[in-house]
Amino acid sequence: MSRRARPPRSSRWVEGNDFELLENGEAFFPRVFAAIEAAQREVWLETFILFDDKVGRELHAVLLGAARRGVAVHVLVDGFGSPDLPEHYIDELVEAGVEFRTFDPGPSLFGRRLNVLRRMHRKIVVVDGTLGFIGGINYSADHLADFGPEAKQDYAVQVRGPIVAQMHHFVQTAIDTDRGRGARQAPAFVNLSPHGSAGAMFVTRDNHRHQTDIERHYRIALRAARQRVVIANAYFFPGYRFIREMRRAAKRGVDVRLILQGQPDMPIVRTAASMLYEHLLRGKVRIYEYCDRPLHGKVALVDDEWSTVGSSNLDPLSLALNLEANVIIRDRAFNAHLHQRLSVLMEESCRTVEVPAKSRWARLRLLRSYCLFHVMRWFPTWAGWLPRHEPVITVAEAVRTAAAGERNVSGATSAPRPMV
What we know:
Layout: E1 14-23, H1 24-37, E2 42-47, H2 54-68, E3 72-78, H3 87-95, E4 99-103, E5 108-109, E6 112-113, E7 124-127, E8 131-135, E9 155-160, H4 163-174, E10 198-205, H5 213-224, E11 228-233, H6 240-251, E12 255-261, H7 267-274, H8 277-282, E13 286-290, E14 298-302, E15 306-310, H9 316-320, E16 324-330, H10 332-349, E17 350-353, H11 362-377, H12 379-383, E18 392-395, H13 396-403, E19 417-418
Parallel strand pairs: 2-3, 3-4, 11-12, 12-13
Antiparallel strand pairs: 1-9, 1-10, 2-7, 4-18, 5-6, 7-8, 8-9, 10-16, 11-14, 13-17, 14-15, 15-16, 18-19
Helix pairs in contact: 1-2, 5-6
């Protein structure tokens, strides 16, 4: 790899891992719930969305069961993504011994929540320090096909091997069981035995030292591409440099394909992405719109070895504001399987976007694209000017105590601590 394409210092390749692609809730939920039911020591779970529906209630049941048999269970949800969990839902978990925390539980004004920016958007599970899950799937019924036309198409992976130790260390640090900052040293890495032949990197994005890590790894892979690139992403509105690398890859003969939403869960998503279409298409990037149902995936592959699965979209929120986590995989078998699944999507469920016919409006469209690229180019700088409140993680007991008017609760908790 050239000096220019050197990976960020915050991550490194770890060999000896095994990855299994889990497509949609039908594959993901049973695997995660079975792992929690089999847990012997601890469960760490982070998610953006947790709803009190049939999926959320099944998760609730297995977490309760684990806690009641003595497993240490730690849950972190995002306050914006999971705003309406019933009090009894949380109370039952806490009473069973679950450490239940909410990231940035902001106030509302006239029913509108104010904590829209800087979300905890990760989806990670680590069981007993040896088995991990990571991807884009939340705990809600709209990730199951029987939800109907609005059911989401999405991906996650089950992970075994030494890379799980990095995931484990990360969630232990992010959801510290001690109630104050600096209460104990960060947990040490545990050396796990090889469980497969895949190399991997666990890569995160935050608003401190790792603000651009995920995007940088995408751009490194695009610069190194020689044969093919397939990116399937729900919310696509990346920066100028990302678009430039895609076009450069396509112009040097790489088969660059982009799978986006054709039936979006939010209409503005398609509107924003479509503003990029002409510039990408004229740069020889092939665009497919997935039309069966909303696409919620965040996966990509380059050539026949590199792949990534995770929570990060390719839009301003994920690339400049949210807390995200992806795993990057170096394995031919996984890459081939992911390519096969995405090829089925393109062949059976997508429409191909064509280059617009030349018209008197062509120059206006190009001018619009030019302006848009420069807006995107400077977005990360402008995002830094947005409110930089310190997000907090609030323990569920503290939330209930305040709501009850300082009623006595056994085992007092400390004040919410800033998220680091």
